[in-house]
Every structure is written in C-alpha cells, then in structure tokens.
C-alpha cells in the first residue's frame, strides 16, 4: 500500500508526476539511496527526466514524503 503526505500530494500536482511513475520508481528503481533523516530515496529515469522519491518504508507500506524532478549537472567533473 502506498500512502502520501500532504506535502507529497502537493508536489505531485505541482510537478506533474503521476502515481504510476512513483509506483514504477518504488518497484523498479534505477538507483537507491539514503537521504535526510535516514529517509529512503529511489531514482527512476523517464522520458521527461529522472524523479527522486523520498519515502519511509513501514512493514507492508510506503509513506511518500516528497517527489522531485532530479536535476543532473552535466558540467560535473
């Protein structure tokens, strides 16, 4: 089961990210990581770019905290 915080719901609308994209990122991430306050991160590339999903895993559910279009710095050394 996937639950969304109020903040996440607002970001989904603002950033034009679908629930299906989030589910896809959670089930088949391209990259995983740990973020602020030990929250889990998954990254998934789509035709429009890469999304970062910030979430907390609780037993059989995910609590989505935020969703962000990840900016890629192509000038990085």
Describe this structure in words.
The chain is α+β, with helices and mostly antiparallel strands and 77 residues long. It has one domain (2-70). Helices cover 25% and strands 44% of the residues. The chain has helices spanning 6-15, 19-27, and strands at 2-4, 31-34, 40-46, 49-58, 61-70. Strands 1-5-4-3-2 form a five-stranded mixed sheet. The N and C termini lie far apart (40 Å).
What's the short version?
By secondary structure, this protein is of the alpha+beta class.
Approximately what portion of the residues adopt beta-strand conformation?
A: 35-45%
The secondary-structure class comes to: alpha+beta
Mean pLDDT rating = 92
Number of domains: 1
Described by strand count, sense and barrel closure, the largest sheet is: 5 strands, mixed
Q: Strands of the biggest beta sheet: in what spatial order?
A: 1-5-4-3-2
Low-confidence stretches: none
What's the end-to-end separation, in Å? 40 Å
* Series of H and E elements: EHHEEEE
Radius of gyration from CA coordinates: 12 Å
**Helical run tally:** 2
Helicity, in percent? Answer: 10-25%
- The shape, in one word, is globular
Secondary structure: number of strands: 5
